[in-house]
Amino acid sequence: MQLNQQAQQFLQTYAADLGKSFGVSNVSQQFSISAPQETKLRAALLESVEFLKMITTMPVDQLKGQVVKVGNYGIATGRKKGGRFVSTQDVGGHTYELTETDSCSAITWAMLSVWANAGNKNEFMKLINQNATLRFALDMLRVGFNGISVAETSDPTANPLGEDVNKGWHQIVKEKAPTQIVTTDIYFDPDGGGDYKTLDAIVTELKNSLIHPSLRSDPRLVVLVGSDLTATAQTHMMNQADRPSEKVAAQKMDKNIGGLSAFTPPFFPGKRIVVTTLKNLHIYTQKGTSQRKSENVEDRKQLEDKYWRNEGYAIEEFEVYAAVDEANMHIGARPVQQ
Fold it and tell me: Which InterPro entries match (predicted)?
């Protein structure tokens, strides 16, 4: 399908507006983003996905360095004989490493023509901007929760969740603090045939056994829980409910589990459970590395919006991350030993 005339006109306006926004004359050639524009781009990414605003995202100077502390978990109150009590907040004791990260959001001519015919110029611009920003932002979470390795050439077919794009938070803890992750088989069965009948019991045990004792009552702790687990628990509660009020309670159960606020973020593995603080999850982008390009590629009949930067993931405090690995979480009764 060819790009219709209205879509062509709108694309010219889009390119001109994008160039004006970033202070460049030709957005079809890769260009560097200035520091103020990096801040603006990061704000747009955070605004597009609510969960990104809850975690820690920040620019850093170095490709490798020490993890930056943003939420000191130690006590800040005390006394000192003959002087004043002081507690410090500085970089952490472990390191991060960023890697080349290349994002590309492609929109076919066919889709662009449909968008152009379906609305006015402002709606067309909004759709294009949101498409790129939302996809880039969601990928930050997709890789953060599922990333395992850093491949020289990534394979999105074999690794649709970005498993080979970068090492995400869970993988970092696996490698650097493996005792914080339960890797023995656990059976979750609300009918009583497994090790646990409720998610509350799993979360409570995680918190009390793997979170540092001084932090178990920290009000910032939350639980991240996979949709497979919440669906199983809700289905069981709905089946057991006899009154409308009980059904409403069943529908709300995933908002609070084990006394902690519960979240199921985008692309979070369906059978994983993590107890942590949201600010404990870090995404770093190296300052001065962000580059953009927006190109109408005739050979592929699509608009390609590209965003290149050095980016990576980090955990601020390993002792504030306790998890059950999804490979070891089973839904149903524990098999009978023969």
Answer: Phage_P2_GpN
pLDDT of residue 142: 97
Q: Which residues contact 9 (CB under 8 A, 6 or more apart)?
A: none
Mind listing the pLDDT tens digit for each residue in 137-191?
999 999 999 999 999 999 999 999 999 999 999 999 999 999 999 999 999 999 9
Report the length, in residues, of the chain: 338
| Residue 27, both tokens | 């957005």
Query: What is the tens place of the pLDDT at every residue in 99-122?
Result: 999 999 999 999 999 999 888 888
pTM, to two decimals? 0.89
Domain 176-280+320-331 has CATH 3.30.2320: yes
List the one residue out of 135, 176, 153 whose CA is nearest residue 267. 135
Q: How far is CA 182 from CA 54, 125, 216, 231, 323, in A?
A: 25, 47, 17, 22, 6
pLDDT for 240 = 60
Q: Evaluate if residue 247 carries a pLDDT over 50.
A: no
The DSSP code sequence of 122-159 is HHHHHHHHHHHHHHHHHHHHHHHHH-----SS--TTT-
